[in-house]
Amino acid sequence: MTAARFGRWAALAAPLALAGTLAGGGVLAQDTASLDAQVEEVIAQAEAVRELERTEELDWRLADADEALTEQLATITQDEEIVDRVRQDERILARLGLLPAGTDLLQLTIDTLQGQVAGFYDPETDQLTVLDDDGELDLASRITLAHEAGHALQDQRWDLKAMQDAMPMVEGDRIAAFQALVEGDATLLMTLWIVKHAAADMMGVDGAGLPGGDSLEGLPQVIQRQLLFPYVDGLAFLMAAWGPNGWPGVADVWAAPPVSTEQVMHPELYPDHVPVEVALPDLAAALGEGWTQTGETVMGELNTGIWVADGAEWDPLSLSLGGVTMPNASAAAGWGGDRLVTLDGPDGAWALAWQTDWDSADDRSEYIAAAVSAMQDLPGAWELLETDLTGGDLSEPVLVLVAADQATLDDLVEASRELVG
Length: 421
Fold this sequence. Notes:
Blueprint: E1 3-5, E2 10-11, E3 14-15, H1 33-50, E4 59-63, H2 65-76, H3 80-95, H4 105-116, E5 117-122, E6 127-131, H5 139-158, H6 160-165, H7 172-197, H8 221-255, H9 261-265, H10 283-287, E7 292-297, H11 300-309, E8 335-344, E9 350-358, H12 361-374, E10 381-385, E11 397-403, H13 406-420
Parallel strand pairs: 1-5, 4-6
Antiparallel strand pairs: 2-3, 5-6, 7-8, 8-9, 9-11, 10-11
Helix pairs in contact: 1-5, 1-7, 5-7, 7-8, 8-11
């Protein structure tokens, strides 16, 4: 099974800027008047199901998958900002034990996209693309087209690029929450379109349009969960708004998008339960000459939950209308806010500081127990402190420190304590 895509596929809920910026590739020769009519029929159906009228005609194409993906992935990976962001995420994930040592996250992302993407909408060019190697609008292509038409309608109404560009790349959790809104909306539209226009054709088809099946096998747990999140959890989140109020209820969410994966995973917390802002001091300066900060993000409940699951066996296809539940999920459910930075120093030294805050003392205690367990097999030395590096802004703080070796960790702990005063 494959996925339709908008936006920037994320690992660590930070943008990799790959899936949503694909463009180019050849339109197949079978782009005939008959095909035009079929495409227009699906777009008009999607428009009616979504109850959102287009303000201008939609630019669409059927494109050869190998040609379109290969060409555009090559272009995207030449963007230094994108590559730098992916390398930052790679360092963070590896140092937390979420990626095996030596994993090339950029190549893993490319390989995953090539196996998952069935179509995409590009807000840079306002074009939607269905990857279809035979030029015929079969069931899978029609489903993908309905999903991508949803993205195009979103863009015409709310300007997706402007909304996403307003979010700093270091705010990974907020970006992941926004992606859940975008993909959840399009997946809800796709689901309703299937019920109305393709229910009979779907007999015997399991979960078309969602990533899954053998395509997830062998991927690191963090990648599996991140791949599912915007579609499955995003759909569950928006159904909570759509169920009682229909599409006007979804429009209300667009007017005030979720600001955390916690809000997406627990719709009852939206919109009032807002995470605390966590700002860290300059740890690179505190560690001394030769140290630089080489990564920063907000992990959020989503990635915290992946971490405390600690690789425990789970079935990523055990989906429900409530989203996905990871092993040991309760240890992350009291998340109140966080910020993580990683640093590199002389002679290959590295360090990581992850400041979290928790909703209650019980939540903090449960997280501490899970964090200590998760860190037993980390690649470096580690320490957990009930310390607030922000200077007193947090109510139930926990500071996780990880370093390349014990000597570096000792320096990091000392620097942290000096900053606290």
